[in-house]
Amino acid sequence: MLSRTPPQRPAVYAEEALVSAILSGEYPAGSALLAERQLAEALGVTRPTLREALQRLSRDGWLSIRQGKPTLVNDYRRDGGLNVLTALVQHAPQLPRNFVPDLLDVRCALAPAYTRQAVTRSRPAVLEALAGAEVLPDTSQAFAAFDWALHRALTVASGNPIYTLILNGFAGFYEQMARRYFARPEARAASRAFYKSLQAAAEAGDDALAGQVTETMMTRSLALWAKARKPSAR
């Protein structure tokens, strides 16, 4: 339910409270928000503060503001932008069930491309990012941190800042989920082998092979995540 305890930044509070209400199903896609006066009262904020929050949510695709008519809740999966991804990550307990598998599926499409471009454009940067992989401690925390740093370095080395912007939207959340994923020895072993293969491809300057081994690993990670999410793997 909507709370009446705004923090120091009321507009941010109102925005987050509304996103939480949408994700929880209190305001499903296609439904109308309360009238502005009622909604501001329910949230414990002023109407100008509420309007500021509504405008931001409309900009990001959560809502459709209609002049003289009730504000409608959009289907964020269809109408949302990149900022919706960031908001979803910040509301991790309310994430849709298939969010992580869907995210990994997208990574399967993007990672081979930015890895291939990274090897083509900046092979030394790729090798530097892989330095230390052979002596990586066999812990989920170490692997999660290393994997995040590696993929971020690859996006930067690719020369396309859009890859980095997309990945940065999952900072924190990436490592949180990765620690769960890397809790399985099988996942750590698979990534250790991947780092070794990628290093060999980068040393040879073989961008096609780098993309291929990355695609293979990203595809395998989907199956490994399916195991990691099972109760027995926790």
Can you offer a commentary on this structure?
This protein has 234 residues and is mainly α. It has helices at 10-24, 36-43, 47-60, 76-79, 82-90, 99-121, 123-130, 140-158, 161-168, 173-181, 185-204, 207-228; strands at 63-64, 72-73. It is built from twelve helices and two strands; from the N terminus they run H-H-H-E-E-H-H-H-H-H-H-H-H-H. The chain has a two-stranded antiparallel ribbon with strand order 1-2. Strand 1 (63-64) and strand 2 form a beta hairpin. The protein is elongated, with a radius of gyration of 21 Å.
DSSP strand content: under 5%
Structural class: mainly alpha
Count of individual beta strands: 2
Can you give the mean pLDDT? 90
Properties at a glance:
single chain, two-stranded antiparallel sheet, Four Helix Bundle (Hemerythrin (Met), subunit A), mainly alpha, Arc Repressor Mutant, subunit A, 2 domains, 234 residues
Topology:
Layout: H1 10-24, H2 36-43, H3 47-60, E1 63-64, E2 72-73, H4 76-79, H5 82-90, H6 99-121, H7 123-130, H8 140-158, H9 161-168, H10 173-181, H11 185-204, H12 207-228
Antiparallel strand pairs: 1-2
Helix pairs in contact: 1-3, 2-3, 6-7, 6-8, 6-12, 7-8, 7-11, 8-9, 8-10, 11-12
Q: In a nutshell, what does this entry contain?
A:
With 234 residues, the chain is mostly helical. It has twelve helices and two strands; from the N terminus they run H-H-H-E-E-H-H-H-H-H-H-H-H-H. Helices cover 68% and strands 2% of the residues.
